[in-house]
């Protein structure tokens, strides 16, 4: 070292220091990118997950990743409420994830953000729920591997309905009536989430409409949907709806803490609810809206995508194939050990014993009988337009027709950009 | 060690040359010192402020969806879209209502606190700290506390518990926009967070008012209290008040954190300009062109308002008025 020091004059020390400072400032921005330290063999991959609410999921995801030997897989666990914002922004940068979970949305295909995964899915295509394949397919290519399907429906406290002498609602009128009868000084009848956005799609399906028709034109704007929005407005102002709860609809707290008698939630929260409430728990689909109404369940869920602009597309595809196609043990673990999810693979659904009896089996039946899957043509901007419909008409009390007209304008602009 | 070798090869001279150079060579050189101390900040400023501003202006003339390196030039279309976008123009209205309320209220509250603390004879440092501490709290953390524990809609929320003592029904403070209780939540959190900081500015200004002025005033017969305040203290605080109002106005324009966390992006009311831009560019819209156009419009507006305010209130003319 002493020999070296003679080569260091003051200016080069300053230069080095300034260089280090600048480099430090720059790397600090990209430091938390979830990549592993570089030990082990092969390439580094980075994956994005939204924060699942159930305990143990984060550890499980990291456990699967560390079991993969052909690359170092780092995990970014995104805890913010708007996972999509963080994801979309990250995808434009050089720190973009190589693989990420999201929902099938066409704008990601059109803008070249997601890689074609047909070659890894096609060999096992028949083992997947056909609806899950269809919702990820655009022009014959499959763009994502479905990891889990998440049916969303109502959970209710059997004892409370019995006490208030309320039947399980099958129409929106009955649901509103039930909410009124179930409301006491301590308990609100119904919880639909704090901003009600979770029920916007079920409302459309239950009113006998669809978000878009087969030609990718607006199909949600019907008189029945508008009437349904009007009914929801009455519910919103009735005082029977739980609002501004500390946790939102996706969290089981509202029903388990006795804040409400009926809660809209997803099957993922079923284990936590069962643990807290035991047998005092039932489920039912979104009730019929209007005369043409049908019962409906939103089969949401999450899928794995590969960033087509990433540095290691092939390695990323290999990893997705390894974990979400080959490792059935992990897939079953992911679907049934933490929250409950319906496995999109028929073979795994057949072996998942936890979903075969009791309430989970009822949930699986609602999934099959009344389920509606994502439409790949329905983008995040269109979801956002529907959020505004709920805000304008139900929460703010504006005319449903005007709110739907406003959404039409936004969504038509989107559709025009996507399909010309 | 390999780096040492390459260095040696590349620059063999310095080892011999440095002893010959006068010792004060670098340290005494003001130009070098200037760059040494401002350089790191300047680099940061260029990378994180000037480049993004330039990039944003460039983007605003392009069709830039799902990309920040667009190729399709569309002129002023993005500007047209933003100016006809009712969400964006509505957000400017939201901001105006917000600013019209929060700026004078914060000004009055921080001035009031400063006067109170300034007059204290004991425990002054304690109260100064107590009022200043909220400034150190993050907007996000405070907003979540306000939303989830103080103003949540369930019966055990703090606000609902208190109104419950008087027999008032539970209120959904944030979810239900009519009546607009959400303003109470938003305004109180910002008042709590900001007042302490501006109070410190006012205390500093109060300490700078020469005591002779008050003596002279009392000799001339000014009554202590309102008269002295109105004719001595307030005029003497003019420069500080102008600066505080300007800072408050800019802070109001930039409002984002508490609105985003309390009201959220799914509502159609209470959206500030920055929230609309965030949603347009980074959020579900992914339209960086339109978002940038909105940012440029907003920047121009802020500049205009600042200049106008300077003209009316004489910002920077504090010395002349004394």
Order of helices and strands of chain B: HHHEEHHHHHHHHHHHHH
- Gross morphology of chain B is globular
Rg of chain B, rounded, reads 27 Å
Q: What's the CATH architecture name of chain B? A: Orthogonal Bundle
Overall shape of chain A: it is: globular
Please characterize this protein's 3D structure:
The complex is a heterodimer of chains A (420) and B (322). Chain A has 420 residues and is of the alpha/beta class. Chain A contains 19 helices and 11 strands. Helix content of chain A is 45%, strand content 15%. In chain A, helix 3 links the parallel strand 1 and strand 2. The longest helix of chain A has 21 residues, at 10-30. Chain A starts with a helix and ends with a helix. Chain B is mainly alpha-helical. Chain B has one domain (83-321): MetI-like (MetI-like fold, Orthogonal Bundle). Helix content of chain B is 69%, strand content 1%. Chain B has a two-stranded antiparallel sheet. In chain B, strand 1 and strand 2 form a beta hairpin. The chains are: A alpha/beta (420), B mainly alpha (322). Chains A and B meet through helix 2, helix 4 and helix 18 of A and helix 1, helix 2, helix 3 and helix 7 of B.
Key traits:
heterodimer; A: alpha/beta; D-Maltodextrin-Binding Protein, domain 2; 19 helices; 45% helix; globular; B: 322 residues; mainly alpha; two-stranded antiparallel sheet; 16 helices; 1% strand
Q: In summary, what is this structure?
A:
The complex is a heterodimer of chains A (420) and B (322). Chain A is an alpha/beta fold and 420 residues long.
What topology does this entry show?
The complex is a heterodimer of chains A (420) and B (322).
Chain A: H1 2-5, H2 10-30, E1 43-50, H3 57-67, E2 71-78, H4 83-90, E3 99-102, H5 106-110, H6 118-121, H7 130-134, E4 137-138, E5 141-142, E6 145-156, H8 158-163, H9 172-182, E7 188-191, H10 200-206, H11 223-237, H12 253-256, E8 260-266, H13 270-277, E9 282-284, E10 297-306, H14 313-326, H15 328-336, H16 346-351, H17 358-370, E11 371-373, H18 380-395, H19 400-419
Helix pairs in contact in A: 9-11, 11-18, 18-19
Chain B: H1 2-10, H2 14-20, H3 30-59, E1 62-63, E2 72-73, H4 77-83, H5 86-119, H6 124-132, H7 139-150, H8 158-165, H9 182-207, H10 211-219, H11 226-236, H12 238-253, H13 257-262, H14 273-281, H15 288-313, H16 318-321
Antiparallel strand pairs in B: 1-2
């Amino acid at each position: 070292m002493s020999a070296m020091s003679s080569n260091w004059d003051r200016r080069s020390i300053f230069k080095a220091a300034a260089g280090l400072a600048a480099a430090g400032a720059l790397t600090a921005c990209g430091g938390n990118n979830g990549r592993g330290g570089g030990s082990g063999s092969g390439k580094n991959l980075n994956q994005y997950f939204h924060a699942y609410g159930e305990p143990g999921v984060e550890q499980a995801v990291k456990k699967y990743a560390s079991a993969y030997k052909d690359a170092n897989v780092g995990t970014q666990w995104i805890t913010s409420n708007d996972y999509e914002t963080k994801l979309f922004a990250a995808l434009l940068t050089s720190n973009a994830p190589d693989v990420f979970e999201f929902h099938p949305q066409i704008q990601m295909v059109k803008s070249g953000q997601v890689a074609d995964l047909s070659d890894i899915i096609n060999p096992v295509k028949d083992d997947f729920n056909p609806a899950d394949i269809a919702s990820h397919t655009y022009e014959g290519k499959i763009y994502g591997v479905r990891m889990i399907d998440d049916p969303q429906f109502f959970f209710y406290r059997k004892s409370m309905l019995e006490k208030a002498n309320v039947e399980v609602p099958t129409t929106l009128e009955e649901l509103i009536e039930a909410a009124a009868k179930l409301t006491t000084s301590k308990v609100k009848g119904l919880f639909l989430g704090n901003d009600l956005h979770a029920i916007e799609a079920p409302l459309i399906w239950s009113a006998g409409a669809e978000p878009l028709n087969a030609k990718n034109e607006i199909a949600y704007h019907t008189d029945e949907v508008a009437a349904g929005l009007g009914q929801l407005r009455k519910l919103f102002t009735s005082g029977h709806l739980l609002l501004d709860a500390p946790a939102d609809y996706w969290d089981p707290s509202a029903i388990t803490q006795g804040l409400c008698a009926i809660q809209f939630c997803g099957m993922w929260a079923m284990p936590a609810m069962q643990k807290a409430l035991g047998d005092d728990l039932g489920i039912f689909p979104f009730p019929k809206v209007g005369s043409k109404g049908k019962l409906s369940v939103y089969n949401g869920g999450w899928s794995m995508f590969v960033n087509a602009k990433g540095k290691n597309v092939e390695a990323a595809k290999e990893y997705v194939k390894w974990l979400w196609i080959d490792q059935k043990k992990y897939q079953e673990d992911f679907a049934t050990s933490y929250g409950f999810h319906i496995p999109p693979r028929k073979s795994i659904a057949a072996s998942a014993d936890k979903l075969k009896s009791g309430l989970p089996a009822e949930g699986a039946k609602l999934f099959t009988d009344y389920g509606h899957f994502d439409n790949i043509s329905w983008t995040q901007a269109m979801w956002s337009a529907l959020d505004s419909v709920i805000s304008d008409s139900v929460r703010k009390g504006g005319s449903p027709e005007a709110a739907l007209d406003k959404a039409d304008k936004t969504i038509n602009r989107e559709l025009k950009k996507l399909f010309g | 060690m390999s780096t040492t070798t390459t260095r040696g090869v590349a620059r063999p001279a310095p080892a011999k040359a440095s002893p010959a150079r006068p010792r004060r060579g670098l340290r005494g050189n003001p130009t070098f010192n200037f760059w040494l101390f401002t350089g790191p900040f300047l680099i940061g400023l260029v990378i994180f402020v000037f480049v993004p501003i330039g990039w944003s202006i460039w983007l605003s003339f392009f069709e830039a969806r799902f990309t920040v390196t667009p190729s399709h030039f569309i002129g002023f279309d993005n500007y047209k879209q933003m100016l006809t976008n009712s969400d964006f123009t509505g957000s400017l209205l939201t901001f105006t209502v917000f600013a019209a309320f929060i700026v004078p209220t914060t000004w009055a509250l921080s001035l009031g606190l400063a006067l109170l603390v300034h007059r204290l004879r004991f425990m002054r440092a304690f109260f100064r700290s107590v009022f200043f501490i909220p400034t150190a709290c993050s907007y996000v953390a405070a907003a979540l506390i306000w939303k989830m524990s103080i103003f949540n809609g369930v019966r055990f929320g703090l606000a609902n518990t208190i109104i419950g003592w008087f027999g008032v029904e539970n209120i959904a403070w944030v979810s239900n926009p009519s009546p607009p209780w959400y303003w109470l939540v938003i305004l109180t959190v910002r008042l709590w967070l900001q007042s302490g900081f501006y109070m410190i500015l006012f205390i500093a200004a109060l300490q700078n008012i020469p005591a002779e002025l008050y003596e002279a005033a009392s000799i001339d017969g000014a009554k202590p209290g309102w008269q002295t305040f109105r004719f001595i203290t307030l005029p003497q605080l003019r420069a500080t008040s102008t600066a505080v109002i300007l800072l408050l106005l800019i802070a109001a324009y930039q409002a984002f954190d508490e609105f985003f966390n309390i009201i959220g992006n799914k509502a159609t009311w209470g959206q500030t300009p920055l929230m609309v831009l965030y949603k347009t560019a980074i959020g579900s819209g992914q339209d960086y062109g339109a978002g940038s156009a909105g940012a440029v419009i907003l920047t121009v507006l802020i500049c205009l308002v600042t200049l106008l305010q300077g003209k009316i209130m004489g910002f920077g003319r504090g010395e002349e008025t004394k």
